């Protein structure tokens, strides 16, 4: 049995924060895919090998039957925390009541944005099956979690390989109270391409930001490589995740997405943020010399980034001198870009009482609350 890691302090030793808090990355998990059975027709239950079809003899043979797209890389310990296991002994993050006590009550959380943590089929080759799985996952998340506590808000999943189906899914549930954003998984099509523009159009109309979160990067047939090819180990893959965001942001800017959809916001969650300084400086420098290629841009790339891009704080970078992180934020005027993320219940979550100690109160208020309030639809 794998050993889970314990990275958190006890509830008793954790002080409560002094400002309102919106946690922009909380992961709900299923105990098993069987939780989706009530939301799927029998034909799709059978394809997914769940519900009453779980013990289908043919599905348990290596005969080309369905296999859920799992990640290529395994954490040598475990990606989930031992202190987040609910009293039932189920998967960490699978019990709404325990999560609210263990996380929300501990930090006086105002809202928690739920980003599905059990894996998606965003890069899966069978788009029809992926669409049904996505629809069922959205309904499961809404019924089990959002309805259980007013502090739960959710990002809805869409189907990146089929924008038309994505639009239909947004039209189906995108205006429901409690849905705060759209979770668009990364596939091997850059986000600036017109392929995605129907999704952006309705997202802007509905006032929903696009959330980008690691998941599909290392699963299934339409996953993108991390710039030069697949990593060999979990540590290599995990450490180079920011490359994905660094590739997507120039695509969004130079393809003119933020000129076409000026009110649309993109939040890159769980990629860190210190790399954004290099990217802003490099894009501005190149734009000065090559702007004839992109005459539709009206302002420097860094200004689009400040206006339309948001970044989750986790996993926060740790420079040799802690003050340097604050200086970096101030240098690039990123105070309005950062969103607090706990990444609960993952192993590399950040303790907000420790990592923000040197930040001034005004900046903490923006990171903990105001920036999220301005980004998500509440």
TrEMBL record:
Q: What biological-process terms (Gene Ontology) are attached?
A: secondary metabolic process
Spell out where the chain crosses the membrane.
Answer: none
Q: What are the protein's UniProt keywords?
A: Hydrolase, Lyase
Q: Does the keyword Hydrolase apply?
A: yes
Q: Which Pfam families match?
A: Amidohydro_2
Give the CC-aspect GO terms: cytoplasm
Q: Which GO terms describe its molecular function?
A: carboxy-lyase activity; hydrolase activity
Name all Amidohydrolase-related domain ranges. Answer: 22-378
Which InterPro entries does this one have? ACMSD, Amidohydro-rel, Metal_Hydrolase
Tell me the protein's name.
Amidohydrolase 2
Organism equals: Neobacillus bataviensis LMG 21833
């Amino acid at each position: 049995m794998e050993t889970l890691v314990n990275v958190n302090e006890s509830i008793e030793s954790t002080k409560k924060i002094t400002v309102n808090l919106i946690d922009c990355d909380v992961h709900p998990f299923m105990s098993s895919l069987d939780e989706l059975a009530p939301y799927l027709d029998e034909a799709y239950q059978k394809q997914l090998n769940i519900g009453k079809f779980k013990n289908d003899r043919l599905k348990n043979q290596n005969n080309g039957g369905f296999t859920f797209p799992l990640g290529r890389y395994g954490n040598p310990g475990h990606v989930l925390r031992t202190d987040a296991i609910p009293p039932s002994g189920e998967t960490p993050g699978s019990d709404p009541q325990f999560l609210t006590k263990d996380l929300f009550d501990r930090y006086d959380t105002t809202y928690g944005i739920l980003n599905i943590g059990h894996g998606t089929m965003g890069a899966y080759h069978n788009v029809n099956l992926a669409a049904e799985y996505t629809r069922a996952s959205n309904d499961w998340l809404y019924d089990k979690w959002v309805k259980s506590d007013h502090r739960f808000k959710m990002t809805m999943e869409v189907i990146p390989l089929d924008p038309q189906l994505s639009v239909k899914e947004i039209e189906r549930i995108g205006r429901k109270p409690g849905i705060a954003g759209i979770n668009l998984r990364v596939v091997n099509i850059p986000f600036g391409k017109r392929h995605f523009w129907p999704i952006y159009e309705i997202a802007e109309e509905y006032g929903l930001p696009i959330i980008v979160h690691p998941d599909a990067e290392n699963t299934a047939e339409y996953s993108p490589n991390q710039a030069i090819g697949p990593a060999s180990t979990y540590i290599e893959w995990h450490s180079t995740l920011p490359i994905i965001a660094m590739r997507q942001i120039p695509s969004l800017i130079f393809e003119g997405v933020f000129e076409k959809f000026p009110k649309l916001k993109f939040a890159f969650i769980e990629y860190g943020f210190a790399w954004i300084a290099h990217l802003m400086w490099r894009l501005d420098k190149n734009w000065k010399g090559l702007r004839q290629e992109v005459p539709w841009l009206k302002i420097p790339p860094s200004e689009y980034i400040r206006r339309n891009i948001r970044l989750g704080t986790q996993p926060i970078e740790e420079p040799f001198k802690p003050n340097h992180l604050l200086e970096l934020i101030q240098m690039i005027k990123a105070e309005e870009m950062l969103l607090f993320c706990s990444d609960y219940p993952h192993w590399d979550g950040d303790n907000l009482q420790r990592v923000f100690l040197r930040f001034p109160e005004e900046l903490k208020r923006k990171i903990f609350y105001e920036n999220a309030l301005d980004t998500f639809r509440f």
